[in-house]
UniProtKB/TrEMBL annotation:
Organism: uncultured Thermomicrobiales bacterium
Enzyme class: transferase
Sequence segments annotated as region (Disordered): 251-283
Lineage: Bacteria, Pseudomonadati, Thermomicrobiota, Thermomicrobia, Thermomicrobiales
Function: Specifically methylates the N7 position of a guanine in 16S rRNA.
Family: Belongs to the methyltransferase superfamily. RNA methyltransferase RsmG family.
Protein name, entry field: Ribosomal RNA small subunit methyltransferase G
Matches recorded under NCBIfam families: rsmG_gidB (TIGR00138)
Record keywords, A-Z: Cytoplasm, Methyltransferase, rRNA processing, S-adenosyl-L-methionine, Transferase
GO-annotated cellular components: cytosol
Its EC number(s): 2.1.1.-
Binding site for S-adenosyl-L-methionine: G109, F114, E132, A133, T134, A160, E161, R179
Subcellular location: Cytoplasm
Amino acid sequence: MAATEPFATPISISSVIGVSAPPGAWPGLSEAARASGVALTSEQLDRFDRYRDLLRHWNTRFNLTAVVEPEAIERRLFLDAVRLLPALKRFAPFDLDGASRTPRLVDIGSGAGFPGLPIAICRPDLAVTLVEATAKKVAFLDAAAVELDLENTRAIHARAEELGHELAHRGSYDLATARAVASLPALLELSMPLLREGGIALFPKGLDLATELPAGQRAAPLVGSALIADDVLPGGETRLIVARKTSATSRRFPRRAGIPTRQPIGGLPSSARSDSGPGGGRR
Ligand code: SAH
């Protein structure tokens, strides 16, 4: 637990997530996932292979992601997302495995699909919505969902600031994720309007949150939420911040496009802003 004191309900999750494999040769996605407590089926592994090939193919046409080597894609993009699964299950507002209706997850600023698409591969029982502001990336996400036969996945070309005010989306998700998109105060403003009360947001971050975390704690109650967990995931490079929506979010939020990042709620000084994700913001 990196920052126990300010949390109302400090929870350490490293014990349930399991220990990571020792550094060294890449054991392959299957083995690495298993070492993080996630068993992937051969069908899922096959989809990850096809996803990796698609990423590499599209990357030759336009800049989808800076990560291009096959092993790096598996290690830094796929495994990073797969490692969120135990936390997703643990913090979900209800038992995901015994759900009476299809749980809905929204991935904000999905880019080339992270972490939403790997989550969709691993959890076909979730309805996954990928929200992405850049049209070309949405075209990729649409193509990937078709190529990988992911019937549970749809991509929406929109900014989260707009979606958060649409009837079909506001207050309608159980789970939210966002990786390498914005600082914690902005992420809270973008995600909380989309969640229903009790819903949970997972924000994988880099290790150094000295400024961002206190700012996130100031911001959380302003949009009807609380930070409920903070821990380092297996691999030691990603800190996972978990927020819960505790009450209705004011209709004022999210503010219009760009404002959540430029004028973060809770008053993060501009010099300390960060949109870094895991791995020091590389993506
Ligand atoms: N989550 C991905 C991509 C990170 S790059 C990953 O981890 O690899 C950030 C992405 O978020 C970009 O593709 C950008 O277009 C998108 N984005 C930024 N702000 C957004 C917003 N307000 N609404 C929707 N998408 C946004």
